[in-house]
Design brief:
Elements lengths: L6 H13 L2 H8 L6 H10 L1 H18 L3 H13 L3 E7 L4 E7 L2 H14 L5 H33 L5 H24 L2
Antiparallel strand pairs: 1-2
């Protein structure tokens, strides 16, 4: 369990957090000017003071740095027109400030940023993917049927050159679609 800091140590830590200068923080905390440099460096090595500084810095950072939820909430407010920006309007006789919602281009950009984070929630995209997968299955089945018919005719000695060309073309089409699918799922 960490012991409590003395008032002087706490002042030192608070001043160090503000300036990042140990000697200056020691002087402002009330240590003598002559020993401020060495006391400041020594205080930074004390576990209790170091822990206090680390905890305060983490607290400050968490308040200053936006987390992912805050970022998405801000983007949502922009996309909905709830977030206002101040614009300066100048006329011949005066200058005034006006709060206006984001323009359409900014709203669209915000909506795109939100959708980048939630791509799987779009029903239209899901439907398009399902349709594309069904088209691939149908094309694959048709190619297999044509291939099977060509094999049967070839086995019977009655190969039709047109049917053979059709089978090759269908197989090439299926291969290209499978390649495209493989590339889009990456």
């Amino acid at each position: 369990m960490a012991r409590k800091l003395t008032p002087k140590q706490q002042r030192f830590a608070d001043e160090y957090i503000k300036s990042g200068n140990a000697a200056d923080a020691a002087r402002k905390a009330g240590y003598s000017k002559r020993s401020a440099r060495s006391v400041g460096q020594e205080n930074l090595t004390k576990p209790d003071i170091k822990q206090y500084i680390d905890e305060r810095m983490a607290e400050i950072a968490s308040k200053r740095i936006m987390d992912a939820t805050e970022a998405v909430e801000l983007l949502t407010r922009i996309a909905r027109g709830e977030e206002k920006e101040t614009k300066v309007v100048a006329t011949q006789f005066s200058v005034s400030k006006v709060d206006v919602p984001a323009d359409l281009k900014t709203k669209i950009a915000a909506a795109r940023e939100i959708l980048k984070r939630y791509p799987g929630d779009d029903k239209l995209v899901k439907a398009q993917i399902s349709k594309a997968e069904a088209d691939v299955r149908i094309a694959t089945a048709k190619a297999r049927i044509v291939e099977h018919q060509a094999d049967e005719l070839e086995g019977a000695g009655r190969i039709n050159p047109l049917l053979a060309a059709l089978a090759k073309g269908a197989q090439r089409l299926v291969s290209e679609e499978e390649e495209d699918d493989a590339n889009t799922t990456k």
